[in-house]
Design brief:
Organism: Porphyromonas loveana
Number of domains: 1
Order of helices and strands: HEEEEHHEEEEEEEEEEHH
Strand content: 35-45%
Pfam families: PNGase_F-II_N
Number of strands: 14
Protein name: GLPGLI family protein
Radius of gyration: 19 Å
Shape: globular
Keywords: Signal
InterPro entries: GLPGLI
Distance between the termini: 49 Å
Strand order of the largest sheet: 8-9-10-11-12-2-3-4-5-6-7-14
Structural class: alpha+beta
Number of helices: 5
Length: 285
């Protein structure tokens, strides 16, 4: 059984303040999913069970930014044959501890302690992966929650992609003890090389990648800007949760355009914790 590393304490004031902004502005009707503490403050978002994971995989995600600097962060994929969720390992740990202590019934001081104890930075990670990705084969949908623009999450849904993977490659590699096959294909405007194992017959992988007869354990795009590498795999019986946020819905193309613009004009988006600028019209009619 693989054990996840524990996380040391570190100051997390920016996240707390940004979170409180979300909490304060959450509509009353969105707060009725669970019991809020006295004073009406909703300390954490709600979670609704989607299904039960059969496998959990931790990936090291590495990104080369526009300054050619490498950033890395650990992600966790919870998956079964029909559903998956990929997001920050640190946030997964925060969710787990919050649920154990009684999510939405915690005192503010207790939640502040959690925020200062669990963060990407506290385990040597950088916050370079800023979304939660949900794959639902039952609905044939992919849903993305992007939180790099705060304080409100951006949400968009697309049809489950069908990638024309070339699986005729003969190369084999071993990753985390699993024999993996090579596949190449195009997705999201990029050319990808991935390695998947049929020993774990789950058609999923990191980020939005999937649609192969086995779990993807390694992936990289042709430019070298993005790469994912599995570092830990375990069988699981954990619940895959859908996180209930107050979101601003948009389309995939508008979200991509905003993300591209942010990384080109970074300083303009850091004012007010990256609040969406007025010149963007993300809401759909």
């Amino acid at each position: 059984m693989v054990k996840f590393v524990s996380i040391a304490k570190e100051h997390y004031a920016v996240v707390l303040l940004s979170f409180l902004l979300v909490s304060i502005t959450t509509p009353l009707e969105a707060q009725t999913h669970s019991t809020a503490p006295s004073g009406g403050m909703k300390l954490t978002y709600d979670q609704k069970p989607m299904g039960q994971a059969s496998v959990e995989c931790i990936y090291r995600y590495t990104r080369t930014n526009t300054k050619r600097e490498k950033q890395s962060q650990r992600l966790i994929l919870q998956a079964n044959n029909k559903q998956s969720k990929c997001y920050s390992l640190a946030k997964y740990k925060l969710d787990s501890v919050a649920n154990l202590r009684g999510r939405n019934n915690m005192k503010l001081a207790d939640f502040q302690m959690l925020l200062t104890s669990y963060s990407e930075a506290s385990i040597g990670d950088q916050s370079c992966y800023n979304s939660r990705e949900y794959r639902d084969a039952k609905k044939a949908e992919l849903t993305s929650f992007i939180y790099e623009f705060g304080p409100r999450n951006i949400e968009y849904t697309t049809p489950l992609p069908t990638v024309r993977w070339n699986t005729a490659h003969k190369e084999r590699v071993t990753i985390c003890g699993y024999s993996c096959r090579k596949a190449t294909g195009e997705f999201g405007g990029r050319k990808w090389t991935v390695w998947y194992t049929t020993d774990i017959p789950v058609s999923s992988g990191p980020w939005k990648l999937g649609d192969l007869p086995g779990l993807i354990l390694r992936a990289s795009d042709a430019t070298g800007e993005h790469s994912f590498e599995a570092v830990s795999i375990r069988n699981a019986k954990s619940t895959i949760f859908w996180d209930v946020f107050t979101t601003q819905k948009t389309t995939a193309e508008k979200a991509r355009q905003m993300s591209r613009d942010k990384h080109k004009n970074y300083e303009q988006h850091e004012r007010g914790f990256g609040v969406i600028q007025p010149n963007y019209t993300l809401l759909e009619p």
